[in-house]
Specification:
Helices cover about 30% and strands about 25% of the residues. It has 14 helices and 24 strands. The site of uridine-diphosphate-N-acetylglucosamine has 20 residues, from helix 1, helix 5 and helix 6. The site of uridine-diphosphate-N-acetylglucosamine (UD1) has 20 residues, from helix 1, helix 5 and helix 6.
């Protein structure tokens, strides 16, 4: 397995471009199954999760054409199978989202229950309840969900029990081809959901209210092809900004959208960073200063994203002062804490491992570390860049799921980082 080798102690300086948002692109790829014509998605990041979704589409017999700029063209009407198998779905939770589009367009789908990051149990009860509310017949056997509907799905009024990003996207996609007007309440409001809704509207869907907690979908009989460009990845962009803050550096992330990162930019300002938003991106300047500790609570958008909690934890670990970091979205999302403590941080977990109390220390020391989820892994890379000495980060296949060309991009900012390939 590949490792990253990092020589710590360099300030990040320079410019880097944000890639397209993984969490938008994945859903648009699933949504392409709804269309009768070719769907072209541009600015798709070159990531393992994207490859997994393309493999799933390929396994259904769907024709997928990818050009050298990662513009992907999907022809759903070439479909030959309605089954997404365990070996593909288990590696990534988002692959479960092919279920609704297959069902809505072709009346049937057999999809394995998902796997994904090791961050809590992550059930799909809201997805299944939503599809049932739309009239789907759902059976579970041998780890598979078997869904069918005679004719079209039927519009419904459905309220999610809590905010779920994937659940909102899944039911919104399925409802586009339902008969009548569907109203979804207590929806998640993440920018990727809005991006997906706009992609569906470009295919001929009639969706309003995306970005609020009530989404209304007027069902249409069919959807056509379209061409869409994925928004910039707010999590990747913010990861570079946090890394710059933690190393006392100055970094501009081109194409990053400040509107999607309001609370994160506020927290970085509180940490002592100077933030400048320009037409083409966001610049952070720490002016060589040590960050100040900032407390935060993760919660659904527009609150602080759980996907940036681990990165902020590293910044806090070397900050001046103490901070409380509360995780409210996922159970078991503090696995990086023990690794950062092994590098000399002073973090203790309380409240059944949902609250981290971080006492900032002057510096971290290098150590061999490993992580078992995507965002935890990148936080250890930031810790390695901050630390004195040489750090190796193992199991970086997690990073490759969500960060495009991570070592090239960090090297372009001055980091001393190399991939050691295993044979
Ligand atoms: C998406 C993002 C992920 C991010 C998360 C929260 C993608 C591919 N992934 O994940 O990066 O961390 O949003 O912002 O877009 N839950 C249930 N039952 C359900 C659905 C969810 O109990 O049917 C729970 C989950 O276990 C979790 C919480 O609800 O504790 C939020 O999950 P959800 O918002 O659905 O996250 P994902 O869509 O999986």
């Amino acid at each position: 397995m590949d490792k990253l080798y990092i020589k710590g102690g360099t300030r990040l300086e320079g410019e880097v471009r944000a890639s397209g948002a993984k969490n938008s692109a994945l859903k648009m790829l699933a949504a392409s199954l709804l269309a009768d014509g070719p769907v072209i998605i541009e600015n798709v990041p070159h990531l393992r999760d994207i490859t997994t979704m393309i493999e799933i589409l390929g396994s259904l017999g769907v024709e997928v054409v990818i050009d050298e700029k990662m513009s992907i063209e999907i022809h759903a009407n070439t479909i030959k199978s309605y089954t997404a198998t365990y070996d593909l779905v288990k590696t990534m939770r988002a692959s479960f989202l092919v279920l609704g589009p297959l069902l809505a367009h072709f009346g049937q789908a057999v999809v394995s229950l998902p796997g994904g990051c090791a961050i809590g149990p992550r059930p799909v009860d809201q997805h299944l309840r939503g599809l049932e509310a739309l009239g789907a017949k759902i059976e579970m056997s041998e780890g598979y969900v078997r869904a069918s509907v005679a004719g079209r799905l039927q519009a419904t009024k459905f309220r999610f029990d809590f905010s779920t990003v994937g659940g909102t996207e899944h039911i919104m996609m399925a409802a586009t081809l339902a008969e009548g007007q569907t109203v979804l309440e207590n929806c998640a409001r993440e920018p990727e959901i809005t991006d997906l809704a706009e992609c569906l509207n470009a295919m001929g869907a009639d969706i309003v209210g995306q970005g609020t907690d009530t989404i209304t979908i007027n069902g249409v009989a069919s959807l056509q092809g379209c061409k869409r460009r994925v928004i910039a990845d707010r999590v990747e962009a913010a990861t570079f900004l946090i890394a710059a803050a933690a190393t006392g550096g100055r970094v501009k992330v081109k194409e990053a959208c400040a509107e999607h990162l309001e609370i994160v930019l506020d927290k970085l300002t509180e940490a002592g960073a100077e933030i400048t938003v320009t037409e083409d991106g966001i610049e952070l300047d720490m002016k060589g200063r040590r960050p100040k500790a900032v407390s935060l609570v993760t919660a659904p958008y527009p609150a602080f994203p759980t996907d940036l909690q681990a990165q902020m934890m590293v910044m806090n670990s070397i900050a001046e002062g103490a901070a409380n970091v509360k995780e409210t979205i996922f159970e078991n999302r503090f696995m990086h804490v023990h690794e950062i403590n092994r590098m000399g941080a002073n973090i203790r977990l309380e409240e059944n491992n949902t609250l981290a109390i971080v006492e900032g220390v002057e510096s971290l020391q290098a150590a061999p570390v490993m992580a078992n989820d995507l965002r935890a892994s990148i936080s250890l890379v930031i810790a390695g860049m901050v630390a004195q000495g040489d750090t190796t980060v193992e199991r970086i296949y997690h990073i490759d799921r969500g960060y495009e060309q991570v070592e090239e991009k960090l090297r372009s900012l001055g980091a001393n980082i190399e991939r050691i390939q295993s044979r």
